[in-house]
Automatic annotation (TrEMBL):
Natural source organism: Clostridium thermobutyricum DSM 4928
Gene label: sdpR_1
Coiled-coil ranges (or none): none
Domain of life, per lineage: Bacteria
PROSITE patterns named in the record: HTH_ARSR_2
InterPro entries: ArsR-like_HTH, Di-Nase_FeMo-co_biosynth, DiNase_FeMo-co_biosyn_sf, HTH_ArsR_DNA-bd_dom, MTH1175_dom, NifX/NifY_domain, WH-like_DNA-bd_sf, WH_DNA-bd_sf
The protein's name in its UniProt record: Transcriptional repressor SdpR
SUPFAM superfamilies recorded: Nitrogenase accessory factor-like, Winged helix' DNA-binding domain
Transmembrane spans: none
Amino acid sequence: MEKEIKIFKALGDEKRLEILSLISRKNMCAKGIARHLNITESAVSQQIKVLKEANLIIGYKVGYHIIYDINEDSLKNSIKFIDSIIDNNSIISDTNLDKLICSDKCKHLKCISDYKFKEGLIMKICFPVESFNGLKSIPYGHFGSAPHFVICDVETKEVRLIGNGDLGHEHGKCQPIKALSGETVDAVIVGGIGAGAIRKLGSMGIKTFKAIDGDLEENLKAFSNGTLKEFSANHTCNHDGCSHH
């Protein structure tokens, strides 16, 4: 990446950017550049040297003068380099990216996909909600009667809403698979949930955690910090005084 480093270092200066902008519109010599930018010729020469070393400009002789123009190919390659980063194409060679994980002490929300439980990585988290406002949504107080579920994919950072496919279930007979409309998740964070639903979710390898006061973003942070309390299998739900198991 030595070539790219030189290019981006060269672009990290206001005067050099002004020179590139100027000669992209009209090719000119160092004296003309100095006159247009109101700087000395020696200052222009110093900046041109950096730009030439980065292969961002080319010079051609006209009479006694050297006229400068931008190197379009080099600039286009720089754009392709940026595009490769945006498109998630690795620029790191000889590295197995699958083996790169964050430190256990990392508490950053963006690293939540690396928060590790004994059974493995939690990749998709489900939040029962009453209304949807992205990560500012508030976790609902009960799993089975929640109108919607927000699915947070901590690997892709995707946040989306699905409906409760079992909203009209008989009291105490929530069917989590039906409620989630077949959606595969690794954990549920909710205000309250019955023991039956906890056991059914657990049988599918889905962990359940008690939501804290606050929005989804605050709960995700608490989750990544490992401070959310996991529901026990014999938990009694007190939603609306139901106390069902």
